[in-house]
Amino acid sequence: AVQANFYQVRLDLTPDIEKTPLDNGELLLLCTRRTRLKKIGQTVMVGDRVLIEEVDFTDKRGAIAQVLPRKTELQRPPVANADQIVLVFALEEPSLDPWQLSRFLVKAESTSLELCLCLNKADLISQQQQQQWQEVLQQWGYDPVLISVVKQDGLKPLLERLKDKISILAGPSGVGKSSLINRLIPAVEQRVNQVSGKLQRGRHTTRHVELFELPGGGLLADTPGFNQPELDSEPTELAFYFPEARQRLEHQQCQFNDCLHRDEPNCVVRGNWERYEYYLKFLEEAIAKQEALQQMP
Ligand code: GDP
Ligand code: ZN
Question: pTM, whole model, 2 decimals?
Answer without folding.
Answer: 0.88
